[in-house]
Amino acid sequence: MLRFLLATRGRGHADWTDWACYIYLVLGVLMMFAPVAWLALSSLKSEAGLDQYPPTVLPYEPVHIAVAGQPTELPLFHVTAGSHAGEDLAELRRIGLQAQMIDPKAPETIIRIPVRDRQPVTHLHAAWTNYTDVISRFNFLQYFWNSSFITVVATVITLLFNAMAAFALSKYRFRGRATVFVVILATLMIPPTIVLVPNYLIASTLGLTNSLWGVIWPAVATPTGVFLLRQYMLTLPDELLDAARMDHASEWRLFWRIVLPLSAPALAVLAIFSVMWRWNDFLWPMVVLDRSEKFTLQLALNSFQGELTTSWNLLLAMTVLTLIPVTILFALLQRYITQGIASSGVK
Amino acid sequence: MIAALRQQFGLGYAAVMNLPERPMHWAQRRFGPGVAWLFVGPNLIVFGLFSFLPIAINFWYAFTGSTQLLPENRPWVGLGNMQALLACGNYLDPSSCQRDLFWHGVYNTIEFVVLQVSLMVLFSLITALALNKKIIGKGFFRAAFFYPVLLSPVVVALIWKWILQRNGVLNATLSANGLGTVDWLLNASSAFGWTVFVSIWAHMGFYTLILLAGLQAIPSDVYEAAEMDAARPWTRFRRLTLPLLMPNLTVVVVLALIHAVQIFDEVFVLTGGGPGTATTYMVQFIYETGFAQQVREYGMASAASLLLAGVLLVLTLLQLRASKTK
Questions:
Q1: Residue B152: predicted pLDDT
Q2: pLDDT tens track for A280-308
Q3: Which of residues 198-237 of B touch A (CB under 8 A)?
Q4: d(CA B113, CA A22)
Q5: Peptide bond connecting A198 to the previous residue in cis, omega within 30 degrees of 0
Q6: How does the average pLDDT of chain B come out, rounded?
Q7: What pLDDT sits at residue B326?
Q8: B contacts of A335 (beta carbons < 8 Å)
Q9: CA torsion through residues B67, B71, B72, B75, sign
Q10: Average pLDDT over residues B43-63
Q11: How far apart are CA B226 and CA B220, in angstroms?
Q12: Using CA atoms, how far apart are residues A222 and B128, in angstroms rounded to an integer?
């Protein structure tokens, strides 16, 4: 096994650079995944579980038991010192550094135990209620719907518009083509962060503020999308189109029936990017949407983390729910995503 | 049933998609190759409305005052906004400036960009070199480093906020090992350091991929020749890999600069720009001045946007040059 691992350079032995390389990569992978794993594990702890310090890796919860004659369930403790050492007692109340405790088997006598002589009894318990609470108590489904609507609709329009422009730029020689090309290139220099105020004015003039369309429209034309698709369409042979023109197909049909299906690989790459961009969008949606029923998941998360500083359990569950769709996309398509980025250099 | 539905849907779909047929034929007869404009039209309209028109309006806002949104209600103030932004007793001391928050933003952004870009490029390069070796599980490692790139900035910020909070896992680990705990996000210099770290954590995988693609494009016979000459690894890296990778490295540096100058999302959620103004960067100044204050100072925000736009213009021209040489 070891020899197999080490036979990396085809020379029968590994030198120190191989070792250093593996150590670096393994540490790097831990660095990348451990924070996300910690988030996921923490999201399964109840509020009481999250309050435990130092924190445990797995979701351990304090055990509560029903005791005869007591109206509520009582927390169970393990006594570590004194005459009751080794017994499991339930806590009635705590007074300063002393706790009044009772034996569940003999609940009549109250026993006093110093608090430092006992430890809470815990058991492994995943608090799935965090997730059901997030979904039922907050407008989570509404935010989820808003985010999904924006992502899907914007991606469909992005693909259509950018493919149309790419088709014109790759398959026609028309007056002004060079100008159009330069104009689209120039938009690279106008990222949304520098036109926040005027875009807000335009959105409000068009009645797009507090509307999901206000997030969709400004984002559907992307220079990167046009270039990516144009590069691909340039490789499609013009003879195909000429043959169809002989059959009196309109230019729209050429685009729709021939060029678009043949561009599927490039469209897929752009679709993945677009989904990523729109799902994760933050600053522009925050400017254009200020009524909470229009919030996307990202905006909702941001406003909750401002309000619910005490309810970390719900916040963590909601964060996990927000990252699940992207993680699924990643798991299914990571090969295409990494290849698309490596070949086009866009993010 | 499903087949029938599918057929119905197919027919409807075909009917809708055939709708442009007649107008298209007419347009072709009328305009010839000019029909191309119909295809670029939608894109150009969107670009016009949400990129070019805004730049023009941005100038109007920057040179007019008051808190009104509608351009016709705004009185002309000329260079007033710019002068207010740039008025400073001593340019090395942001607190002496009239708009001290702006200058804090400028200085913080410069510090952030220098530190973040250099560290990010360094670590991306190391990671790409490691991934370029003949190793087992290459695909897995490559994917793992890339995973955080897909996470939304808000999620990234919350993941780290949870780790760095006072009773978080980092402090628990430190105190379990007998070390002192720190309130990471409430201490100015550590909060700044963590914004650099978190943004590198979240974006490193992207730059690693571009560098890795560059490394893989270097033909292996170049190395074989070097190995025959018994070149040592370091010499090989400096004399062969680095020069051949230069075009990609330039693209990565410029792209990283463009993104770093515009840092906002993850920092805004992680620290809110604090403590004090320790992690307030340029875009946050623009956002808060224009949208998050009681009094919305659109003119100030636009003036600051124009200054930022100038920086980005230079960087983007550099990027285009770099990708051309590539």
A1: 93
A2: 999 999 999 988 889 999 999 998 887 75
A3: 201, 205-206, 209-210, 212-213, 233
A4: 30
A5: no
A6: 86
A7: 53
A8: 139
A9: positive
A10: 91
A11: 10
A12: 29
- Residue among B133, B185, B141, B178 at smallest CA distance from B160: B185
How many whole angstroms separate alpha carbon B89 and alpha carbon B98?
8
Q: Which residues of B257-268 are buried (b: 16+ CB within 10 A; e: fewer)?
A: bbbbbbbbbbbb
Summarised one tens digit per residue, pLDDT across range B213-269 is 888 888 877 777 766 666 677 787 888 888 888 888 888 888 898 899 999 999 999
Using the Cβ of A345 and the Cβ atoms of chain B, whether some distance falls under 8 Å is answered with yes
Higher pLDDT, B28 or B48: B48
ipTM rounded to 2 decimals: 0.86
Tokens of A306: 């401002």
Task: Tell me whether residues B40 and A165 touch, CB distance under 8 A.
Answer: yes
Give residues with Cβ within 8 angstroms of A185, minimum separation 6. A223, B320
B124 close to B110: Cβ distance less than 8 angstroms:
no
CB spacing of A168 vs B37 below 8 angstroms: yes
Q: Report the distance separating Cα A156 and Cα A298, nearest Å.
A: 21
Distance from C-alpha of A344 to C-alpha of A269, rounded to nearest angstrom: 10
- Distance CA(A6)–CA(A18), nearest Å, equals 8
Residue A115: the pLDDT is 78
Token pair belonging to A67: 């005791």
pTM, two decimal places: 0.85
CA distance A83 to B313: 77
Q: Give the sign of the dihedral formed by CA A114, CA A119, CA A125, CA A127.
A: positive
Interatomic CA distance for residues A294 and B102, integer angstroms: 31
Dihedrals phi, psi of A295, to nearest 5 degrees? -60, 145
Select from B268, B152, B49, B150 the least CA-distant residue to A216.
Answer: B49
B17 touches chain A (CB under 8 A): yes
Low-confidence ranges of chain A (pLDDT < 50): 1-12
Q: Do B147 and A280 count as a contact with CB atoms less than 8 A apart?
A: no
B281 CB contacts (<8 Å, ≥6 apart)?
Answer: B105, B108, B109, B112, B263, B264, B267, B273
Chain A residues within an 8 Å CB radius of B265: 282-283
Number of H helices, E strands in chain B: 16, 0
* Angle subtended at Cα A266 by Cα A264 and Cα A267, rounded to the nearest 5 degrees: 60
Q: What is the dihedral of CA A51, A53, A56, A57, to 10 degrees?
A: 80
Helix B188-216 and helix A312-344: axis angle, to 10°?
30
Q: Is the preceding omega at residue A114 within 30 degrees of 0, hence cis?
A: no
Distance in Å from the first CA to the final CA of chain B: 55
Q: Which runs of consecutive H residues, i.e. helices, occur in A16-139?
A: 16-42, 47-51, 129-137
Residue A123 exposed, middle or buried by CB count within 10 Å (0-12, 13-18, 19+): exposed
- Whether the pLDDT of residue B40 is over 70: the answer is yes
Longest dimension (CA), chain B: 83
Q: How many CA atoms lie within 13 A of A228 on its CB side?
A: 28
Which tokens hold the place of B72? 């016709």
SS3 state at B65: coil
Q: Which of B130, B151, B201 sits opposite A326 (nearest CB)?
A: B151
Given an 8 Å threshold on Cβ–Cβ distance, is A54 in contact with B58? no
In chain B, the domains with their CATH numbers are: 2-62 (no CATH), 89-325 (1.10.3720.10)
Of the candidates A17, A199, A323, the beta carbon closest to that of B155 is on A323
Q: Is A78 helix (H, G, I), strand (E, B) or coil?
A: strand
B257/A342 Cα distance (integer angstroms):
19
Whole-angstrom Cα distance, residue B108 to residue A314?
Answer: 33
